[in-house]
Task: inverse folding
């Protein structure tokens, strides 16, 4: 069965409606089922549909309506043939899932029952504890707005959880204290020692407590996000719990992000790597082409407990209003083989102490952002960051290589002047610029348009859709 679907994002706290994709989906093996949920549809709630699902099934949930939380998905899809739960935007509104005595939505099983899901285009809020609970493998969350849950916005379990991708999503007003976070990922190192947590094209902001993003996963890929306004650290990549810490090394690849420190704890550290007192990562960390904005003098990198190495290339570190920044706090660091830090072609304010192991550092007083007061950190013409980076940076000889790094950023973070819920390509112009943005001239960027087509599928054979794609200014 071939289904053709147009997905439309919802405007919420700065998000803008946009056509996302036209997708063809083929069922493998037995013909997959499509379940429709909503007022007047065959099913009223997701709770009724969840026990019926099989690999390849699609659930379409009508928007402009609120559904009860406490939804648990525990039947498995299959690798390459996931179960898809899709919100359908109606009257400009995503479907809302609200409430739940513990979790608003959960994917759970220790034996693969909650594995292989795609969950997309929903607003999720109001669970008694967490908004989304992940205890599964091969889970994709996309086009979500997650907000106002008293504990974690999105939580990965220590036991039973594997790989997860979160993309094109917004998380805000979640967490509390110092131990409940907006996003808190973990992984079962025994069941899934090679699991990956990927966060990309997301906006994580204005937490009520804890860190904006905390992870104990075996591999962390933090790409092209806007992360700002945490109570504690903006980003914390650390080791697994003590009983699991020697099973796998927890590496972190952080590329192309805008990270802004602000709020009541403006002078708190921006990033913590290594550990947090409950488990060492012994990790290799790599920070490339990020733009980091701080209002005070506290350290950018809080290097804490056990780690192996840190690479820092092509980043800009700027203090609002000017002045030097503090790059490192290493008092608590426990290096696996002695200090291993390498950095190249980073921009820092004049007067900043350059960490040992850095080379080619660019200093100055003004990186020439377009409009930092308006949250626009793209580059003006003549910025000292333009063509000042290094393409495809690599570790120096004798330095431990980071496994399968994202060599060069392909996109820029969401937010002004770009939309929030689409991927904005990073142009390749000359030598790469320092930071998360590549300078663009006043010439408007090319636009892609797709002409609609309609076809009657029928119940046998195949039917083709012809979609004419036009690129302005090729």
Result:
């Amino acid at each position: 069965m071939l289904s053709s679907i147009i997905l439309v994002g919802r405007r919420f706290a700065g998000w803008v409606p946009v056509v996302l994709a036209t997708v063809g989906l083929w069922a493998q093996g037995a013909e997959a089922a499509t379940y429709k949920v909503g007022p007047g549809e065959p099913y009223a709630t997701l709770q009724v549909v969840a026990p019926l699902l099989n690999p390849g099934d699609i659930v379409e949930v009508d928007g402009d309506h609120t559904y009860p939380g406490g939804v648990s998905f525990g039947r498995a899809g299959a690798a390459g043939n996931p179960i898809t739960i899709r919100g359908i935007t109606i009257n400009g509104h995503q479907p809302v899932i609200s409430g739940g005595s513990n979790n608003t939505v959960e994917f759970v099983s220790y034996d693969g029952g909650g594995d292989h899901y795609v969950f997309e285009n929903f607003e999720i809020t109001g669970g008694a504890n967490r908004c989304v609970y992940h205890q599964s493998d091969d889970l994709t969350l996309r086009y979500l707005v997650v907000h106002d849950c008293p504990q974690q916005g999105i939580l990965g379990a220590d036991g039973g959880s594997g790989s997860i991708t979160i993309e094109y999503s917004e998380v805000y007003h979640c967490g509390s204290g110092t131990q409940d976070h907006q996003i808190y990922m973990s992984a079962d190192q025994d069941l899934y020692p090679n699991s990956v947590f990927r966060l990309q094209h997301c906006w994580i902001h204005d937490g009520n407590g804890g860190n904006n993003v905390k992870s104990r996963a075996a591999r962390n890929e933090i790409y092209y996000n806007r992360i700002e306004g945490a109570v504690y650290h903006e980003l914390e990549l650390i080791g697994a719990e003590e009983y699991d810490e020697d099973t796998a090394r927890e590496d972190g690849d952080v590329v192309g992000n805008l990270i802004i420190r602000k709020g009541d704890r403006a002078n708190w550290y921006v990033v913590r790597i290594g550990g947090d007192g409950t488990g060492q990562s012994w990790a290799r960390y790599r920070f490339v082409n990020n733009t980091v904005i701080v209002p005070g003098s506290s350290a950018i990198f809080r290097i804490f407990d056990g780690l192996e190495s840190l690479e820092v290339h092509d980043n800009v570190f700027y203090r609002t209003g000017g002045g030097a920044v503090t790059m490192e706090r290493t008092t608590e660091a426990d290096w696996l083989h002695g200090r291993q830090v390498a950095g190249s072609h980073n921009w820092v304010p004049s007067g900043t102490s350059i960490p040992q192991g850095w080379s080619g550092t660019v200093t100055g007083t003004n990186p020439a952002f377009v409009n930092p007061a308006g949250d626009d950190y793209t580059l003006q013409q003549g910025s000292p960051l333009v063509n000042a980076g290094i393409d495809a940076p690599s570790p120096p000889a004798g330095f431990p290589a980071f496994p399968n790094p994202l060599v060069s950023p392909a996109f820029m973070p969401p937010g002004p002047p770009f939309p929030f819920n689409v991927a904005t390509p990073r142009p390749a112009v000359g030598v790469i610029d320092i930071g998360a943005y590549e300078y663009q001239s006043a010439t408007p960027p090319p636009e892609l348009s797709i002409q609609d087509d309609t076809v009657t599928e029928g119940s046998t054979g195949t039917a083709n859709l012809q979609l004419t794609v036009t690129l302005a200014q090729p």
